[in-house]
Amino acid sequence: MDGSLDTPLDRQIAAVRRFTRFYTRHLGVLREGLLDSPFALTEARVLYELAQAPELGAAELARRLALDAGYLSRILRRFETDGLIARDPVPEDGRRATLRLTEAGREAFAGLDAASRAQVRRLLAALPASARPRLVAAMRTIEALLDTDAPAPWLIRPLGPGDGGWVVESHGRLYAQEYGWNAEFEALVAEIVAAFLRAHDPACEGGWIAERDGAPVGSVFVVRQDARTAKLRLLLVEPEARGLGIGRRLVEHAMGFARGVGYARMTLWTNDVLVAARHIYESAGFVCTAREPHTSFGKDLVSETWERDLTPD
């Protein structure tokens, strides 16, 4: 055996390096111009960040991209010379300026964005439909594990053996503790989970668990309502894991899956007393389209239907 691969850690290092070489070659990021454009990878990322956050400062941009300030300054000078960005002085601080894309800059970014979408579309189209959610889930797992900015280590993974029971138990326990709902609600969750485990289609339906320090702390499901509409179900985050952005990320993960398998819209059913969940839905772009009083789970409630389009943001 090669002496450099004697330990498990050595073998893990070799595997990560092999994956990095494979992925950078597969996406063509080593070429001089990214996606046959005049921009290198770092320059394209700068354009992307400015397109997502208008009026961003140079210091914040450097922090987001973990770039050396001098290197970023050279890129920005070139962009300014080429008419891709403009600097606007901050009124309350004449020493500072915000950056924004000009019309030419927006056009340059739009071309890059379209080329990137087309590249990823080709990558996914080469896979069986049933394999695409697995690829996306694996990528999200890598992202979560390596996100050192997270306040505590957690990840989102696909539903596994035993998770269905945890989802039912957690919903029954938390909704009884926090809202006084009776066993009728736990029975409803058990029916939803049982139907999913018995007959879900992995090509267009999925369930995920948020895991922190090896223990489940959250859940979300996507099921098929019709050929164009996905339904978001069973969003939950345990109290000790709230405030970490897990609920928001679970919803984003579900929306990303739904887009990836071809749904055009997403809907969900909730109740107006679930204030924290409703805030997550609203911040994710959902709009309440219907409200109806009802008596369920031992309480007088107002049910709500929320919906949103899933076309690219």
Structure write-up:
The chain has about 325 residues and is an alpha+beta fold. The chain folds into 2 domains: about 30-125, Arc Repressor Mutant, subunit A; about 130-310, Gcn5-related N-acetyltransferase (GNAT) (Aminopeptidase, 3-Layer(aba) Sandwich). Helices cover about 50% and strands about 25% of the residues. The strands form 2 sheets. It has a 7-stranded mixed sheet, sandwiched between helices. Strands 1-3-2 form a 3-stranded antiparallel sheet.
> Strands across the major sheet, in which order?
4-5-6-7-8-10-9
Total number of beta strands: 10
How many separate structural domains? 2
Q: Determine the CATH superfamily of the largest domain.
A: Gcn5-related N-acetyltransferase (GNAT)
Instruction: Return the CATH class of the largest domain.
Output: Alpha Beta
Sheet of most strands: 7 strands, mixed
Oligomer: single chain
Order of helices and strands: HHEHHEEHHEHHEEEHEHEE
User: For the terminal residues, how far apart are their CA atoms?
Assistant: 50 Å
Question: The CATH topology of the largest domain is what?
Answer: Aminopeptidase
SS-based class: alpha+beta
What portion of residues belong to β-strands?
15-25%
State the share of residues found in helices, binned by percent: 40-55%
Please name the CATH architecture of the largest domain: 3-Layer(aba) Sandwich
Individual helix count: 10
Low-confidence stretches: none
Rounded mean pLDDT is 88
